[in-house]
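User: Before I run my own analysis I want an independent prediction to cross-check against. Here's the chain; please return only the structure tokens and, at the end, one sentence I can use as a sanity check.
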Amino acid sequence: MNQAETESLARQFVQAGYELVQHPGEADVYILNTCTVTHTADAKARHLLRLARRQNPDICIIATGCYAQRTAAELAAIEGVNRIVDNSEKPNLLQILKNIPAKTHLPSGTVAASAPFRTRSFLKIQDGCQNFCSYCIVPFVRSSETSVPPESIIHEIRQRTNEGYQEVVLTGTRVGGYAFEGLDLTGLLQRILDETKIPGVRLSSLQPQEISPALIKLWKDSRLCPHFHLSLQSGSAGVLKRMNRRYSPDEYRKTVQLIRKEVPRVAITTDVIVGFPGETDTEFEESLEFCKEAGFARIHVFSYSPRSGTAAAKMTGQVPDKVKKERSGKMLALAEESAQKFRESFAGEALDVIWEKQTDGGDWTGITGNYIRVFAKSKDDLSNKKSKIKIQ
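Assistant: Structure tokens:
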């Protein structure tokens, strides 16, 4: 979702006549859209802000996003940050910038706003979450649940189609919670399929309880990418209960079975947290075994990171860092093994791929509909083209 917001901001600035550049040293203005989901995300934000100031002493630096929302004082303490902007003010950044004294940060001229920023476009359809999982800081910084009107979403997708995008990714804090005047995610997707010609639609993270047979049946339309990012967090019933997740391992398993029954060649990717407070060796092994059985196409592994103010940060039984590291290593090893098996299962098959760019070695690289990264040699310019390829 942060990518979607950053893309939207970039479009606003380009349409106002600003020019996007690749390096802080070239810029008059540097805007960092921060994340605060883990302490690592916080540390990266602080590093990038300090780095930008070192690389360009005259630059105007603005920090916004969830870290700015959660604790503006920490970011304000970083020398050289000109302004902290919380999430509610983020849409008004253009106007805010006009009120910040600086030598140069006026639009430098008209720049074409129609050129694609990426091969696929990220589009925010929903914001906010009130689930309050015990480990998660997000409901404290994005508590109000809102959904974008379908007409606005369809307009944006039509615009992206006209700009030449091959795919849009629908994002949000809780995409499965989309609800606008009686229209849910299933109804929104049906309208997108009926009213736009975008070649590909992909969803960001979903939760098992948000998936229904009616939703899955929409995947009979090949424009919906056969890829579900289905958050797990733990394969242990006890840990899921302490996390305040709203499903059991068995309910998650049944959702996976439903998806695989209805969507051929589907990739199911997930997130897993290791070292959650109170996680015993037995509970970790339950989670490891569950992930092995599920056969995920990709597993994003996180060591539990306490977030001040969340219920989990106050729980007893905090797992030592050494144990977290050991468990993370085991889960990462399984993640690589599982991903390799998934990729190899498509050897010899033909899949659709959207090509993104050339690597330093000259090969073209892209991602298939079911989220396999592929490489190919070609003398032609394949950038942003869609083609069918045989997996070797």
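Sanity check: The longest strand covers residues 350-358.
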